[in-house]
Amino acid sequence: MSTCTLCEKREAVFMRPYSGERLCRRCFCESIENKVRATISRYEMFQPDDNIMVGVSGGKDSVTLLHILTKIEKKFPDATLYAVTVDEGIKGYRDEALKFAVENCRKLGVKHVVTSFKQMYGYGLDELVNMIEEKELTPCSYCGVLRRRALNTAAREAGVEKLATAHNLDDETQTMILNILHGDVLRLTRVKPVLTVVHPKLVPRVKPFCEVPEREVALYAYLKKIEFQSVPCPYAGTALRNDVRAILNRLEGKHAGTKFTVFRSMERIRPALEAMAEEVKLRECNKCGEPTGSELCKPCQMLEKLSIA
């Protein structure tokens, strides 16, 4: 590896195929932090006095986001940073991840809230999976819906202005392709850096990592010696997302910048899709009182299918 392209002093440790840059340890880490700052500014994610809650699972993306936002927020004394971890109830997996989340929050001095599926719904994911049997939805489908509800509830109860999640560039492009494969094109209107507020019970969600590739998040965590859980979720293999991830990674390997191209294309297409989509007027769920477009919200519908709601 040659000398760093930016500082022209130190030895490069990383080469960005899509830009041609060769970066040393310091310049690489600064570039990630600057990218996050630029993304926050471009999409107007935060106000100077916003209280922010970060969804921290204990994995590399969420823990790294917590570290970077903690560094950024030090310049904004009127704002307070919180963290929330959702314990889905996955034996041998979430237990370990929770330890990493707790330890990182302690080191950074961030107030940490822990909630769980058991606490909110009466069952952990392992128990729910045993009830799913051969029904049409996968464990990931249940987990995604129930986890989003848990995060929003925790953020609302904490009284924060924004909920930050660590969805990176890979996550976003995968979700975009998945929506197309599922034939749910109009759902692309909801895959964006800042989720529009449509109900007072919904806390605005932002994604500061949406333009940072997953491998760069991982390298930043490694170079900064950030401790995180690296073991994959035992249920992840059941998701179509794995196939989409593999396809995008192969394309990126042959054609550097493909993921950015997909992301930018969807950014340009979204306004047209939003114009086509009917405005959804949210009401409150007849069962739990949470925001929904129908009589029952998605979590209640899912739990009802399992005859436990």
Write the layout of secondary structure elements.
Elements: E1 14-15, E2 22-23, H1 25-42, E3 52-55, H2 60-73, E4 81-87, H3 94-108, E5 111-116, H4 117-121, H5 125-132, H6 139-158, E6 162-164, H7 169-181, E7 205-206, H8 214-223, H9 241-254, H10 258-276, E8 283-284, E9 291-292, H11 298-305
Parallel strand pairs: 3-4, 3-6, 4-5, 6-7
Antiparallel strand pairs: 1-2, 8-9
Helix pairs in contact: 1-8, 2-3, 2-8, 7-9, 7-10
Q: Would you mind describing this structure in some detail?
A:
- With 309 residues, the protein is of the alpha/beta class.
- It has a single domain, classed as Rossmann fold, CATH 3.40.50.
- Helix content is 47%, strand content 10%.
- It is built from eleven helices and nine strands.
- The protein has helices at residues 25-42, 60-73, 94-108, 117-121, 125-132, 139-158, 169-181, 214-223, 241-254, 258-276, 298-305; strands at residues 14-15, 22-23, 52-55, 81-87, 111-116, 162-164, 205-206, 283-284, 291-292.
- The strands form three sheets. Strands 5-4-3-6-7 form a five-stranded parallel beta sheet, with helices on both faces.
- Helix 2 runs parallel beside helix 3 (94-108).
- The mean pLDDT is 93.
Structural class based on helices, strands and sheet pairing: alpha/beta
Assign the CATH architecture.
3-Layer(aba) Sandwich
Q: Radius of gyration, Cα only, in angstroms?
A: 20 Å
Corresponding CATH superfamily: HUPs
Give start-end ranges of low-pLDDT stretches: none
Element pattern in H and E: EEHEHEHEHHHEHEHHHEEH
What is the C-level CATH assignment? Alpha Beta
Distance between the termini: 58 Å
Work out the helix count: 11
Average of per-residue pLDDT values: 93
Global outline: globular
Q: How many individual β-strands?
A: 9
Biggest sheet, in brief? 5 strands, parallel
Our estimate of the beta-strand percent is: 5-15%
